[in-house]
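Convert to structure. Protein one:
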Amino acid sequence: MTDTQDLAEKILAGERRALARAITLIESGRPDHREAGADLMSRLAGSGKQAIRIGLSGTPGVGKSTFIESFGMMLTAQGLRVAVLAVDPSSARSGGSILGDKTRMERLSRDPGAFIRPSPSQTHLGGVARRTREAVALCEAAGFDVVLIETVGVGQSETVVAEMSDLFVLLLAPAGGDELQGVKRGIMEMADLILINKADGDLKPAAMRTCSDYSGALRLLRKRPQDPEGFPKALMVSALQEDGLKTAWEEMTELVEWRRETGHFEGRRIAQARYWFEQEVKQGLLAQLETPQAKAAMEQAAEDVAKGRATPTNAARDVLNALKR
């Protein structure tokens, strides 16, 4: 049995091993672990600690891990504590994940001011793992100043990360062409900052053109109430040469401070809390379909539909009515 009180005290004291144990606990699907995880989150709810939550998305191969390592090293050099929650895609066949982010971020993983935690997506849509939101809250309670949430890569449901972050950063490669076709507008409308990575060497002219193109595209979007003048904006960075990272951080902190002063920061967190409450209710309802009784009813109803004895609509209604009893 997990001693959640002891674990909570160690997390509040900033113990990294306790934080790792806590994330493992909340990611577990075992009923007793879920209950202990809920109790732990309740004990930490009143800690009052806040970090800047930064969601980071981008196309595969754009250099997300390289950027996070260089960016994280810059922040820790300033005395800030940085947590990285990296979500790896899970195999649809085996369910396994590589979880290689610590290997890709070798320097940052050795930094005493940083904490890196890879998690499998477990086929959960939205580019994040099912319990990433709770992991973010645990990192905040442990006293980290910045929490970076790296998603699995651009997709149509990728914008879910915007519902658990204070800033949503989109990382793009120079001369990417139409690689974001079909998801571009949705993600651009969510992005607070677009960073054109790999702006170095032979790619620098292409990066300048890409940055200019996206700057123009952002000006065409309707201004959002949570943005000061000039935001969202596009900037060039080179994670490899660690160029432009300081400017990007200054822009992020400027936006956060403006939102705090105008009340948008707190308002966004309140809206996110409501969103995740609704998601928990929906997930709870879906979990009821996994019980043996529900599965048996579903199987019988599916057979009736397959043999023409019932329509899909009526069969579904009967199953749902049975669950209410």
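Protein two, convert as well:
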Amino acid sequence: MKAVRIHATGGLDVLKYEEVSDPVCRDNEVLVGIKSISINFSDVLIRRGEYPYMPDFPAILGSESSGEVQQVGSQVEHVKVGDRVIVFGHPSYCTLAAVPATKVVPFPDNVDFDAAAALPIIYLTAYHMLHTVRRVQPGETVLIYAAAGGVGTATIQLGRIAGLKMIGLTSQDEKAKLIKEMGIDHVINYRTEPVVERVREITAGKGADLILDCVAGENFGDNFRMLNTLGQVIWFGIADGNPTTDLLKAIGRDPSQSYGVSMFHLFSVMKNPQLSAESFATLIRYLAEGKIAPIIYRKVPLEHAHEAHKILEDHENTGKVILNP
């Protein structure tokens, strides 16, 4: 089979398109011919050596894809040869994968492979931040960092289903146009507008009920100037590095506000098989019914994975970048 592997961390040149031995399907596994691969910024961080959970080298990158079942192990009952499946939580920059049966989820024929591959990480992340960590209520206001990115666009679609008011942060007029067309209520260009003041203006001085922050870094403390009473910040990314804010000082500045801070990683959901299965079923149903639709920014051949990584590093994309073998 063909695969994109890294043998060491570094720049785009460490992504190597190679011939690798075909995997062997064991009794508890499913052999999947990969049709579509969804990439994430975590892949970039792993390649650069900046991710908290690093693989052993040489490593095939990626963690979500879709394809057709080519073989099933003797212990596997929930899928059969020919089924269309999402592969989640398994290296994916490859043409063939032998995957534990617990990591494959069937999806219906009216959903295409690219949409299926793009579903797991961004929609599960958005769904569980809204409905598990926060348990949002209709009418609440959510501030979304990187609103035109993968998790951002997923949050907008799920937020509309939940009846939320949404404010999105972005840096480009083209991206702002996209998320406005998706139905977001307000857009703030963080490069040209004072974000804190604009959020307070939009919310009539109250602030947002929920802030979803995938950026963090030295400006993380600004979140506490934009929160409503009993508001919550969910920190789920490190695009600008770990927060440098003294959280106790920031929260304690006005204890009567009763702010909450949560850290979210999708691994926490994967540790709960029932919760994971229920939310997956909900999202696949939404996808099949047309209630959600992943935004696909560009499709790139697998052998040109370096081009896809550059798109993410340059923050060029609106929505997902897909690799096709």
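The first helix runs from residue 41 to 48. DSSP finds ten helices and 16 strands in the chain.
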